């Protein structure tokens, strides 16, 4: 349906004429001279439009297949519960768009982080999403989608923190404590890039959810939470000055959706992710959730 308008645009732009039953399409430019540069530019726009259309048309139709997606609702702005009690976020919007493009029907369920990978690995859910870093050790249990986002690890502290301003300063003060969820990227970064490489270091206090660690930070029970830059920005923006980010970024990580091993959903989801990046949908979601959205509203 969209191919004809794109072709007609190219015809008109290039100064040609064509007859469609009942309609004569003639460019008003055909009686004027145009430089090759302008023609090439206009033709380029037409070809780009056709390329995006072709990519969209290549996505498979999964015929209304019903799937269950599991999340944690504890990682703003990727997924969380807003002030009105609604589960929202970048990942929810992205998954809805993927489902629309692939003709999937999605049901959401919640679980804790430590239960998510084993549950998806065991086939209890079709897809897992909670800002999951793509790691080789996790690939032994689940399949990953292609990366849908890259983020960098940051140090989040209380707004009045003055005892340290970077990872070296934190490590040097034995009285300072860090919150972490076991088995997460922030845990391993804290162990190996901030502290001494000892995974049993008593300065790392374990919490079941990321949000619980943040609450402990606010209460003064711990002094540092490591998080990706996107989530950290969301928490800081909503904290009314009670939280801030200090120090240099500690490394980059790629996020992906997870699936049971050998899932037939991986390829179509990857195709949808690629299409969303190509047509600007992913960038639109980034702007909505990382720039325009105000946490707590």
Structure write-up:
The chain folds into 3 domains: 3-57, no CATH class; 65-148 and 256-292, Periplasmic binding protein-like II (D-Maltodextrin-Binding Protein, domain 2), CATH 3.40.190; 151-253, Periplasmic binding protein-like II (D-Maltodextrin-Binding Protein, domain 2, 3-Layer(aba) Sandwich), CATH 3.40.190. The longest helix has 22 residues, at 36-57. The radius of gyration is 24 Å and the shape is globular. Residues 1-43 and 45-56 have low confidence and may be disordered. The strands form 5 sheets. Strands 9, 10, 11, 12, 13 and 14 form a 6-stranded mixed sheet that branches. A 3-stranded parallel sheet has the order 6-3-7, sandwiched between helices. It is built from 10 helices and 15 strands. With 297 residues, the chain is of the alpha/beta class. Helix 1 runs antiparallel to helix 2 (36-57). It has helices at 3-13, 36-57, 90-102, 113-121, 167-172, 185-194, 210-219, 229-238, 266-278, 281-292, and strands at residues 17-20, 23-26, 65-71, 80-81, 87-88, 104-110, 127-129, 142-144, 149-158, 178-180, 204-206, 224-228, 243-246, 252-255, 258-260. 39% of the residues lie in helices and 22% in strands.
Features:
3-stranded parallel sheet; D-Maltodextrin-Binding Protein, domain 2; 6-stranded mixed sheet; 10 helices; disordered N terminus; alpha/beta
